Task: inverse folding
């Protein structure tokens, strides 16, 4: 069952035609990944899905509801939550305050406390630093915080925009393990990555984006073994 | 919740004590007419600074057109009492509502702008309001609107100020206030957390403008006249200076900034040529040694004193 369907969308930045008729679908329970080089339109696609950008043409459907052009905050309320690229934590708030902000749309105090405890179990490092100002965390910790904050809103579909950006290899591995865990507990994931090898190795389904168009699609394994992908993105 | 109420009660008692002392001194004529005028001005400036702080400090939208909303309140209030013969209560409500409505209408399109662009747009707005007033003969044009009765008194200013401070304090601690702070910290992140960023930016802007309108009504009904020259962009900068001096995002900071700068300005009344120099020097020194303002974004509270005391004992 497709949870999210993107049907032939066009997105412009002023006169620049950034996304040229992209279609993709994300199945419930899967990890789907979108890979491609700089400027291919990966983040633009995510921003359009989460409502931060509006497509000129095309249609986006989430759980059978048309969300094309809907305001970003309403889309979050429907259970589709984005972790923006470059982490974007609330730098002057503490770690726990950041997590509380993640539950902004929720009213169930007990559920929020429980989810906060879950986030701390999943990211023990955040627990150690729960009263620390978020801006003073390391890059990896900020990424964990941004992901933890998104989880606080109980997403059914989590959009991750380059979670490995600027992180040391060991941390990248850790982040990817966490993505797999999050997915295993029932959250569908749409992952945008430049780190193609890592992304493909955990993806059920994958799309390759090239200058605003989808050039290849298949299962993660297929693309990992595809010659074209290996040449272009995997350095082999 | 209970402790919150207790703190409110304490603050109210403190306000009553401050009021009693100042009012007593005024009645006993220990404080003369000149300083009475400045006490009223301090009250009005506190309203202006804390309301601008809602926009610039809490929500992080850099607005520098506050004098425009002050002017709208001053003139609309004066029209109510002078031209239409209403009483002060109606003038206060009308002035507040008019400035708030204008803030809402202007906020919707301009708050899509960020940083410098919003600053320029609001600066322009303040000037547009002033120049419009300058050219409306109904309100006296360049000569100003004269013959306004003095309906503002120190007690009125003081208690309206207390009410507004109480409102702003509660706003900051509410879910709405949290949303505004989140927008200031990071607008994209706030958006992806499900916060309707446009709604909260417009809300803070509208409330800030409305309170500036209240201040305007009090202002014109104390000084007998509403004159376009009182609402130039220099006035906007005055208010902004108070907010920055106290610390963007700190309500007690804005209050302190308003008191300190109004006081300096009054003390230097006999040396007008020194006023701007001292003003500028204060700002330069502050920016060099304490760029976050006197209080940063923290609030001055009894808790802060207590933690200082405990810290002192430990050493």
Result:
């Amino acid at each position: 069952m497709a949870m999210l369907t993107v049907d032939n969308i066009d997105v412009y930045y002023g006169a620049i035609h950034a996304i040229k008729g992209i279609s993709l679908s994300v199945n419930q329970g899967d990890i789907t990944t979108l890979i491609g080089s700089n400027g291919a339109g990966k983040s633009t696609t995510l921003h359009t899905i989460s409502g931060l950008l509006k497509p000129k043409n095309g249609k986006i459907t989430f759980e059978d509801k048309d969300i094309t052009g809907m305001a970003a905050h309403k889309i979050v309320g429907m259970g589709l939550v984005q972790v923006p690229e470059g982490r974007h934590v609330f730098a002057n708030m503490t770690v726990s305050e950041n997590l509380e902000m993640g539950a902004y749309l929720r009213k169930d105090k007990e559920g929020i406390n429980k989810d906060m405890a879950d986030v701390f179990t999943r990211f023990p490092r955040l627990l150690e630093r729960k009263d620390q100002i978020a801006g003073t965390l390391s890059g990896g910790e900020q990424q964990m915080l941004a992901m933890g904050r998104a989880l606080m809103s109980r997403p059914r579909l989590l959009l991750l925009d380059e979670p490995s950006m600027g992180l040391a290899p060991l941390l990248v591995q850790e982040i990817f393990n966490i993505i797999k865990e999050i997915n295993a507990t029932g959250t569908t994931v749409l992952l945008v990555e430049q780190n193609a090898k890592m992304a493909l190795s955990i993806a059920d389904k994958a799309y390759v984006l090239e200058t605003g168009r989808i050039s290849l699609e298949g299962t993660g394994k297929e693309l990992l073994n595809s010659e074209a992908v290996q040449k272009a993105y995997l350095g082999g | 919740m209970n402790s919150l109420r207790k703190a409110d009660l304490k603050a109210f008692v403190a306000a009553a004590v401050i009021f009693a002392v100042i009012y007593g001194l005024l009645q006993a004529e220990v404080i003369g007419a000149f300083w009475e005028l400045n006490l009223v001005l301090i009250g009005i400036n506190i309203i202006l600074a804390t309301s601008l702080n809602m926009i610039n400090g809490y929500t992080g939208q850099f607005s520098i057109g506050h004098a425009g909303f002050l002017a709208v309140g001053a003139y609309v209030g004066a029209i109510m009492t002078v031209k239409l013969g209403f009483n002060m209560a109606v003038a206060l409500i009308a002035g507040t509502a008019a400035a708030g409505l204008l803030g809402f209408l202007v906020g919707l399109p301009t708050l899509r702008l960020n940083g410098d662009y919003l600053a320029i747009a609001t600066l322009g707005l303040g000037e547009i309001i002033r120049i419009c007033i300058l050219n409306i003969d109904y309100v006296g044009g360049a000569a100003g609107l004269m013959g306004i009765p003095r309906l503002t008194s120190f007690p009125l200013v003081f208690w309206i100020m207390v009410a507004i401070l109480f409102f702003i304090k509660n706003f900051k601690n509410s879910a709405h206030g949290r949303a505004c702070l989140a927008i200031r910290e990071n607008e994209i992140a706030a958006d992806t957390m499900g916060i309707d960023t446009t709604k909260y930016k417009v809300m803070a802007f509208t409330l800030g403008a409305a309170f500036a309108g209240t201040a305007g009504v009090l202002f014109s009904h104390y000084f007998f006249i509403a004159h376009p020259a009182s609402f130039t962009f220099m006035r906007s900068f005055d208010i902004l200076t108070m907010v920055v001096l106290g610390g963007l995002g700190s309500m007690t900071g804005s209050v302190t900034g308003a008191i300190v700068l109004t006081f300096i300005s009054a003390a230097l009344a006999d040396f007008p040529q020194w006023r701007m120099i001292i003003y500028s020097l204060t700002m330069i020194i502050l920016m060099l040694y304490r760029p976050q303002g006197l209080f940063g974004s923290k609030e001055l509270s009894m808790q802060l004193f207590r933690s200082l005391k405990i810290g002192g004992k430990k050493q």
